[in-house]
Design a protein that fits this description.
By secondary structure, this protein is an all-beta fold. Helices cover 2% and strands 36% of the residues. The chain has 1 helix and 14 strands; from the N terminus they run αββββββββββββββ. It has one helix at residues 8-12, and strands at residues 43-45, 53-64, 69-77, 86-89, 97-103, 106-111, 116-121, 128-133, 136-137, 140-142, 147-152, 155-160, 169-171, 185-187. The strands form 4 sheets. Strands 2, 3, 4, 5, 6 and 14 form a 6-stranded antiparallel sheet that branches. It has a 4-stranded antiparallel sheet with strand order 10-11-12-13, with no helix packed on it. β2 and β3 (69-77) form a beta hairpin. It is globular. 43% of the residues are buried.
């Protein structure tokens, strides 16, 4: 799977602020990240706010192990019963552009120059929603998996999908492939099949998609 290229000059220059996700290792493959993660459901202000640094630009995508294909965020929500989740396309060029910026407590993910990718604890008890909103939202970052997560309620939830779907959503790590597949990355080129084959992971349905 392609890995994203972090803009090293920004890191070297010390422009990524203390506490920013990419400077911390906060999770392992066997469990969700520790209780000191910086993910939060708080807004952090607009991209014009001072103290933000553009880290990278790319497409938000993942390798869907059971379908054996790469999927990328379209910039829109899904339709019908998928309206709780992000719509996807298999066409890298057609995917939405994501701008990643460092802020005081982590990273923001902005869709072009428009809305931000955010998370919301659902009131129905069934959906921990990934949403788009006008206000910036802070995500934590896990360097080992090159992946983004947030803490809602008592759980760390990751941007990805739960192995049987063609959407991008929020998931507990137990529904993410143990090798780190099915977790989303911001990438600058098309994602290819991971070593060891195009399919894999559990085929068990989960509560998210």
């Amino acid at each position: 799977m392609n890995r994203k290229i972090v803009l090293l000059p920004l890191v070297a220059a010390g422009l990524i602020l203390a506490g920013c996700g990419p400077t911390e290792e906060t999770s392992s493959s066997s469990s969700s990240s520790n209780s000191e993660s910086t993910g939060t459901s708080e807004s952090t202000g607009s991209s014009e706010s001072t103290g933000t640094t553009l880290v990278e630009t790319g497409k938000l995508g993942l390798w869907q192990t059971n379908l054996g294909e790469a999927q990328y965020f379209t910039g829109s929500m899904g339709e019908g019963n998928k309206s709780y989740y992000f719509g996807t396309t298999t066409d890298f060029e057609a995917a939405a552009t994501i701008n990643v910026r460092s802020v005081e407590n982590g990273l923001t993910l902005q869709i072009g120059d428009g809305q931000y990718i955010a998370a919301r604890l659902s009131g129905d008890g069934e959906h921990n929603n990934i949403i788009m909103q006008d206000e910036a939202y802070t995500w934590s970052y896990n360097e080992e998996y090159d992946a983004y997560y947030t803490n809602l309620g008592e759980s760390d939830l990751w941007i990805g999908n739960s192995q049987n779907y063609d959407t991008i959503s929020l998931n507990d790590w137990k529904w993410i492939d143990k090798a780190g597949n099915n977790v989303a990355h911001v990438v600058q080129s098309a994602i290819t099949a991971p070593e060891g084959g195009e399919t894999g992971g559990s085929s068990e349905d989960s509560g998210s998609s």
